[in-house]
Amino acid sequence: MPETSQYDEIGELYEQVGDLPFGIAERATVLSAVPDLRDRTVLDVGCGTGTYARLFRRAGARQVLGVDPAREMLAVARAAEEREPLGIAYERYDGLTMPKLGEFDVVAAIWPLSHVGDRDSYDRMVANLAENLVPGGQLLIVVPNPDAGSDRLDDYPRYGMTVFPGGYTGECVETRIRVHSDPPFEFSGFGWPSGVLEESCAAAGLTEVRRYPTVVPEPDLAERGSEFWAVLLESSMFAVFTARRGEN
Ligand SMILES: C[S@@+](CC[C@H](N)C(=O)[O-])C[C@H]1O[C@@H](n2cnc3c(N)ncnc32)[C@H](O)[C@@H]1O
Questions:
Q1: I want to staple 103 with a disulfide (CB 3.0 to 4.6 A). Which of 109, 134, 144, 175 is the partner?
Q2: What does the pLDDT look like over 123-179, one tens digit per residue?
Q3: Distances (CA, A) of 165 to 122, 168, 174, 175, 231
Q4: Candidate from 4, 7, 56 with most ligand 1 atoms within 8 A of CB, to mutate
């Protein structure tokens, strides 16, 4: 596992994402995809500062384990747990090399696949996620929207994010992201073409791959108006998927 990552520079700033328009829609769309979590166990891979781990616990999950390779992101997550204990455990693992940590009802991977830049590693991370699911359990994935039209990029800054596409490395496009927090921060990642996630899930024995339409909470729709949200609703920068591990 690398000693540091680009996220060690970001840490606490990442917490501001949830207040930006794209973060509000991302969270609502993720929540539309999660099953009833009451009494379920959840593994959150690439948990970052623990935003979703806390949401899953507050939604009733009986056990939540968050893992991430970035020490600084984990430090923010652990500090939040210390301030307001919810019983969430955080451990340092990389999704590419993590062992089987248990059999969880839900495994979430909210953005870590966007940091994988070669196909073998992509398939390996999806296989590692699948291996941590109970038979019949649900994988929840957020990746960059594989179908986002490049003509939409100019509209994204109003949602709190600027996307700078770079060159292709094999199948995937390297992308720099600027998040309009205060102060702004940047990181880079990879966008994969449509169909790759589905193929990778099939190779890992996952079925029922399903994509969810973007959701904007009613109060936010009312506050800013439907014209403001139109592009995000039609072609957002994120895509939320679920898949199921076969019963065996
Ligand atoms: C955009 S942040 C999202 C954090 C969190 N999931 C959220 O949505 O609030 C991406 C996270 O993926 C983590 N990450 C990057 N490469 C990873 C890998 N190989 N395995 C697991 N996590 C990884 C980063 O450290 C970072 O915390």
A1: 134
A2: 999 999 999 999 999 999 999 999 987 888 999 999 999 999 999 988 999 999 999
A3: 20, 9, 6, 4, 18
A4: 7
For residue 226, give every residue at least 6 positions away whose Cβ sits within 8 Å of its Cβ, in sequence order, or none: none
Q: Does ligand 1 lie within 6 Å of residue 51's CB atom? A: yes
Q: Please report the pLDDT score of residue 34 as a whole number.
A: 96
How many domains, the chain? 1
- Indicate if ligand 1 lies below 6 Å from the C-beta of 95: yes
Contact 13, 75 (CB under 8 A): no
**74, 18 Cβ separation under 8 angstroms:** no
Residues 6 or more apart whose Cβ sits within 8 Å of residue 160: 17, 20, 21, 22, 23, 179, 180, 181
**Is 170 within a domain?**
no
Q: Is residue 165 situated within a structural domain?
A: no
Mapped onto helix, strand or coil, the DSSP state of residue 217 is coil
Pocket flag, ligand 1, residue 189 (CB < 6 Å):
no
Q: What is the CATH number of the domain that holds 41?
A: 3.40.50.150
> How far does the centroid of ligand 1 lie from the alpha carbon of residue 140, in Å?
14
- Ligand 1 centre to CA of 202 (Å) is 23
